[in-house]
Amino acid sequence: MKLRMQITKDPEIRFISHLEYSRTISRAIRRAKLPAAYSEGFNPHLKFSLASALGVGVVSYTEFVEIELAEPMEVELAAKALDKALPRGIRVLAADAVDTHHAALMSQAAGASYRVTLPYGEDISEAAAAFNAAPELLFKKAAPKTKAGFKEIDVKFYIPHIDVSCDGKATVFNFDCKITPTGSMKAVDLLNALNEQYQLGLPVEMADIERLHLYRMSQKGNKAPMLNNDAVQLA
Predict the structure, then answer these.
(1) Per-position DSSP letters for 84-128, written without gaps between them
(2) What confidence tens digit (pLDDT) does each residue in 75-110 have?
(3) CA distance 63 to 60
(4) Is 140:149 a contact under the CB 8 Å cutoff?
(5) For the segment 109-133, what is each residue's pLDDT rounded down to a tens digit?
(6) Cα–Cα distance, 235 to 159 (Å, whole number)
(7) Is-contact 3 67, C-beta < 8 A?
(8) What is the spatial distance between Cα 234 and Cα 116, in angstroms, rounded to a whole number?
(9) H runs (alpha helix) in the chain
(10) What is the C-alpha to C-alpha distance for residues 142 and 153, in angstroms, rounded to an integer?
(11) Residue 144: per-residue pLDDT
(12) If we measure between CA atoms, which residue out of 5, 146, 1, 125 comes closest to residue 63?
């Protein structure tokens, strides 16, 4: 039996790394005394996984953890136990049981929806329209481990469309970003690409980035939730 839970990374812990986030969840699973399964071998570890790595500084209301259990447990009881064992900054919002032979959680995540808020009052509607109309936008992303020190990505492959609004004080971006087996791209890379391509002055270092939804794709190519419709809701 596997449990899949929707969890958060709230603003107060937005600057912890993905590794520390994962370790925190691992410790909470133990504190909750869930009948979690362990791998075999000299150094056994908990059988749990996260859907998608989240960048440092990003808030999320839609992270997912999947825990393999050594014995069955009622979904709601398990979700409440884990929620109680988690520290401030991580909450369990919903939970569901999935079949043990179900495809791996990470392989199912196909895209994420983001909201990015910047303290920037200038009108960038023309730049946004140009981006949406462009067939591609190539951007050199730093990649220190490569021979060239960078890799060129097509931003439009990952983010085909952006919606932008501005009230004279703040600019808000809403967009979907594709997640593939070989990777994805960060919201800050989109902002840097827009600055570079359209000579904008977006204060990237002041961006408030929120991941609003994480989804998979149905067989018909439509967005589908990571949990079933009858999932237990805690919040």
Answers:
(1) HHSPTT--EEEEEEE-TTSPPHHHH--EEEEEEEES--S--HHHH
(2) 999 999 999 999 999 999 999 998 766 677 888 899
(3) 6
(4) no
(5) 999 999 999 999 999 999 999 999 9
(6) 30
(7) yes
(8) 26
(9) 18-31, 75-85, 105-108, 125-133, 155-158, 187-198
(10) 10
(11) 66
(12) 5
- Residue 105 tokens read as 């959680």
Provide the angle, in degrees to the nearest 10, between the axes of the packed helices 125-133 and 187-198.
100
Residue type at 145 in one-letter notation: K
Contact 82, 34 (CB under 8 A): yes
Cβ atoms within 10 A of the Cβ of 217, count? 14
Beta bridge partners of 172: 117, 165
Side chain identity at residue 105, one-letter code: L
- Please give the Cα distance from 184 to 162 (Å, whole number): 16
Beta bridge partner(s), residue 131: none
Residue 161 token pair:
């469309």
Specify the residue for token string 């050594």.
Answer: 70
Question: In this structure, which amino acid lies at residue 98?
Answer: V
Longest dimension (CA), the chain: 60
Give which of 195, 175, 186, 15 is closest to 120, Cα–Cα: 195
Using CB atoms within 10 Å of the CB of residue 131, give its burial: 0 to 12 exposed, 13 to 18 middle, 19+ buried.
buried
Q: Which two tokens stand for residue 93?
A: 């919002």
CB 32 within 8 A of CB 82: yes
